[in-house]
Amino acid sequence: MYAFIGDLHLGVKLPRMDFMKSLDKFLGLIKGHKEECHCIFVAGDLFDHKLSVEESKFAAIFLVNLVMNNCGRDGRQHVPVHFIHGTYNHDNEQYEMFMPLLEQLPNTEVFYTKNACKCKLHNGTKVLYLPQEYRGSIDYSQAFKENYDLIVGHGPISSNVKAPCKSTQYEILHSAEQLGDISKLCVFGHYHGYTDFGNGVYYTGPWLRWKYGEDEPRVFFFANDEFKVETVPNEFALEFITVHINSCEELREWLSKDITTPHRFIIHCKSDELNEYHGIMNAYKNNQFVKYQIMSEHVEHDEAPGHVNDGHVKTIVEPVPALIEYVKDKYKMDVTEEIKDYESKINRDSKPE
Q1: Given this model, what pLDDT does residue 338 score?
Q2: Given a cut of 90, is residue 329 above it in pLDDT?
Q3: Are the CB atoms for 207 and 220 separated by under 8 Å?
Q4: pLDDT computed for residue 166 by the predictor
Q5: Helix axes 95-103, 53-67, angle to 10 degrees
Q6: Which of 69, 153, 265, 305 could make an S-S bridge to 292, C-beta 3.0–4.6 Å?
Q7: In this structure, are residues 23 and 58 in contact, taking their beta carbons and an 8 Å threshold?
Q8: pLDDT of 176 over the 90 cut
Q9: Any idea what DSSP says for residue 21?
Q10: H-only helix segments in the chain
């Protein structure tokens, strides 16, 4: 059997134990499978951003546990782990920090590539790796003339059946139909939802959720020796639930429940009901799982517990987040950390002595 991981995004603001519990479950499923696992594939976006020192420490712990997995059989202690590069502003150049450490671990096998290449696993499985690369002089025509048992990749996929992932002019867009025709199974990372394109082509999706609107299943993704896909739901993936509210009674009924997963309440109300809704929500301002957004006849309030508005002010676009998103969309660069550093410097310099 074969095991796949996509879009872990180590560094996102989730409890770290959610990652470790998910890893333990994933490795437990490999150990309990009736077939030997030939390889664990990490299909890009292992990291979310350029990690801080503390985030890097946790990533190192996670990766050591992944590579020293104790899932091997027939004289092999650990299952090999193969990594491919994902979106540049997520994975960045960070593999260069961790691979020297992982390569020194005893009785392990790790492989990493940021360029398209072919390899054979120990059992003879023929694999084509397609890390995310960007438009230029890259020519896949020779590689696509061959057939493969597995294709493991990262990036946007086009399809005549489904198109769940947007792409930009800079990204190479692979065809689901073409990839399916030259492989027994093709598994990509990039889109944050498990997706079956048909013809043996899939997005694996991440293990966890970390924002509202991500409703697709979160699963552990495997394939047996016949390249038939097997998925297992991840019970550690938080649900980020959005609820539309049309009356105060409906809101009170929801809030009377024990809310222990992230909920966002979209409140549709008239202007003269604003104070009543804010009063209801103010009682729950200390519940980290409760957020709300009020949409009245004259105003849309951003999510914020206890936010009070006079009913005549339009939604304000915050300039710094808007700038970050603009740079990310136009230039494919994540400048979040640089802007935060700049803001911190301004705040320090502006303090009175």
Answers
A1: 74
A2: no
A3: yes
A4: 80
A5: 40
A6: 265
A7: no
A8: yes
A9: H
A10: 16-32, 53-67, 88-91, 95-103, 176-181, 248-255, 274-282, 319-331, 336-350
pTM above threshold 0.85? no
Task: Give pLDDT tens digits for 88-106.
Answer: 999 998 999 999 999 999 9
For the record, the structure tokens of 15 come out as 């409890």
- Structural tokens at position 254: 């929801």
Q: 228-233: which pairs have CB atoms within 8 A and are 24 or more residues apart?
A: 229/185, 229/196, 229/202, 230/1, 231/194, 232/29
> Who wins on pLDDT, 282 or 113?
113
Instruction: Establish how many alpha carbons lie within 13 A of residue 125's alpha carbon, considering only the half-sphere containing its beta carbon.
Output: 23
Dist CA 264 CA 57 (whole Å): 32
Report the pLDDT value the prediction gives residue 313, as an integer from 0 to 100.
29
- Given a contact cutoff of 8 angstroms between Cβ atoms, the answer to whether 57 and 15 are in contact is no
Return the amino acid letter for 144.
Answer: F
Q: Of 33, 106, 98, which is closest to residue 63 (Cα–Cα)?
A: 98
Q: How far apart are CA 18 and CA 14, in angstroms?
A: 7
Strand order in the sheet with 229-233: 110-113, 81-84, 39-43, 2-5, 219-223, 229-233
CA dist., res. 8 & res. 47, Å (int): 7
**Tens digit of pLDDT for each residue in 124-140?**
999 999 999 987 778 99
Least Cα distance to 117 among 157, 90, 152 occurs for 152
Tokens of 206: 């991440």
